[in-house]
Amino acid sequence: MSGTVGILIVSHSPKVAEGAVDMVRQMVGDEVACTGVGGDPAGGLGTDAEKILAGIESLWSEAGVAVLVDLGGAEMNSEMAIEMLDEARRGRVRIAAAPVVEGAVIAATEASSGSTLAEVVAAAEEWR
Amino acid sequence: MAAERARVRVDHPTGLHARPAVKLTKLAKGFEASIRLRGLPDGAWIDAKSIVKVMALKLKTGTEIELEAEGADAAEAIAGLSGLVERNFDEHG
Predict the structure, then answer these.
(1) Residue B1 class from Cβ within 10 Å (0-12 exposed, 13-18 middle, 19+ buried)?
(2) Å from B18 to nearest chain A CA?
(3) Which residue of A has its CA nearest to B89?
């Protein structure tokens, strides 16, 4: 299994997404691939499946990608983006039911110690 | 296999949160030994390898913690983790 699990942060706001990525960088460091996607194509608040798909592709490794989302639309569009992936890779992208910021820091910490996608998602979802 | 133990004070201004918590957990995960910690005087023991559990402790600066490890590299684990805390998580406070 090469690579560590990638962490994709999806928010309705590009600023929230960027801020969460900054927190992951500061707290966990750079050894985990982490990027943020936010805003709709018109530059307003919202989410966009195409942008999310691009985010997944930019983070791709055999270890897969954990997706952290904020509210409803972010999850729905992330699911749509996963559907757009080819069959073989679809199973290696999972959306964590966790708060977007705390979940991202926890997921990144787990990923940085080489945990599997399932372990990364489980750790994020442990946060209450 | 006797357990190895140590008590150290968290003097980092952030307390055992955010980056310090991440650093402690990542270091702990590098050891085979099972490692747990608790806030003194009467905190509950938690798994030092679980970032969620360490962060959930919300240990403030100035708190003393007790570390305990059991296993082949228990001594190194305790030395490593206590050192990290004593060095303020290798951050200039």
Answers:
(1) exposed
(2) 6
(3) A27
Radius of gyration over every alpha carbon of chain B, rounded to an integer in angstroms:
12
- Contact state of B25 with A109 under an 8 Å Cβ cutoff: yes
The verdict on a CB contact (< 8 Å) between B18 and A126 is: no
* ipTM for this prediction: 0.81
A39-94 pLDDT tens trace: 999 989 999 999 999 999 999 999 999 999 999 899 999 999 999 999 999 999 99
- pTM of the full structure: 0.90
Sheet containing strand B4-9, strands side by side? B4-9, B64-70, B34-39, B46-47
SS3 B12: coil
User: Within an 8 Å CB–CB cutoff, is residue A22 touching chain B?
Assistant: no
